[in-house]
Sequence to fold (191 residues):
Amino acid sequence: MQTVATLHRMPPTTLSSLLSKVQTSNYPSSLAIIDVRDGDHAGGHIKSSQHVPSSTLDYRIPELVRTLKEKDTVVFHCSLSQQRGPGAALKYLRERERLLAGAVGASEENEKLGVEKKVAEEGLGEEKINDIAGSHGVQTVTEGAESGSSEARRGKEQEVYVLDGGFVKWQELYGEDEHLTEDYAPDVWRD
Fold:
């Protein structure tokens, strides 16, 4: 199980490279940037980021898991990425794991019920049952519980990161870059 200490960190330089590639590509973006700052969201944001205030995470995380399911990379950040950003990434990972486990379990159960119905209707023997089950990707009791596809249980592979240094570090490096930062207000960030 993931913890805040085991979350992957992404340096701002890496994120800027990814974002630049996405902007020059003709393909749909496989990158999602989630900004969980609250009232401190003023002063600019990373281009194409989605603002999801940390105060709304309890009810928005399941929605994020569903809407970001096709993304290859998801990067969370707050101002410093010390509390809210990592906390949001951890909630996201745990909810994703929970929903994927539930979805795979429900899917497997529906497949199993379909096979059992066919068996009952046709009065088939064990060998034929295993053939039908196998053709539907369903394991039978005689195949053992360990033979299920681990890829199916995980769902689409997705890498989740926390932006190292948060938006504070980002704006120091890329605040003035209009290709990477939107609505930047330098006076907000002056000492």
Q: What stands out?
A: DSSP finds seven helices and seven strands in the chain.
